[in-house]
Specification:
By secondary structure, the protein is mostly helical. The protein has a two-stranded antiparallel ribbon. Strand 1 and strand 2 form a beta hairpin. Helix 4 packs across helix 7 and helix 6 crosses helix 7. The longest helix is centred in the first third of the chain and has 18 residues.
Length: about 180
């Protein structure tokens, strides 16, 4: 019961921190000194929070350069969760970045935690936004960030690739989680 209360408290904290996203500072790559959403004509964008400390996570909005990534940035919903071609690509990317070494070939856990739910090491990973933040910036549990520019200045997954990986992960559990609920 105590673990349940802690999980609920953590979820509430993550929700509050997500709602308080700070877009006043210029994200990397934005030389105008304006929030990336405003500088690109995108007046509405979700705010990201890092999984490690719950602090605002600034991601250059220019990296969201596909229609699906732009939709995700605006809504937090992953349009790839039912796209079979994207899901297959996500499986390949999961392997290319050696995610299988820790999370297993079906993302159900190995050395690292399972990613399919219904319980998650990081409860926010039940949502696509939460899982995106975890993959992009990394965790306190030993996983380094996989987002473009996090691993090295010129390497890493693009937002579109992260969304495809998440879409594939969502197909691996028997719970039918899409993260869009």
């Amino acid at each position: 019961m105590k673990d349940f209360r802690i999980s609920i408290a953590l979820l509430a904290l993550v929700a509050m921190l997500s709602a308080c996203g700070n877009n006043d500072s210029a994200p990397e790559g934005n030389t105008e000194g304006q929030p990336a959403a405003a500088s690109e004509g995108n007046s509405k964008a979700i705010s990201f929070v890092d999984t490690q400390e719950g602090k605002p996570l600034e991601i250059d909005h220019a990296l969201f350069d596909t229609p699906a990534a732009k939709e995700f940035l605006a809504t937090g919903k992953n349009p790839y969760v039912t796209d079979q071609e994207a899901i297959e690509r996500g499986k390949k990317i999961f392997g290319l970045y050696s995610c299988t070494q820790c999370h297993g070939p079906t993302a159900q856990g190995q050395v690292g935690p399972g990613l399919v739910g219904p319980t998650f090491k990081y409860p926010k990973n039940a949502t696509n936004k939460g899982m995106f933040e975890t993959i992009w910036h990394g965790t306190n549990g030993g996983m380094g960030g996989k987002g473009k520019g996090i691993m090295t200045p010129t390497d890493g997954m693009t937002p579109d690739e992260v969304l495809k990986v998440i879409a594939w992960i969502r197909t691996q559990g028997s719970e039918g989680l899409t993260g869009n609920e």
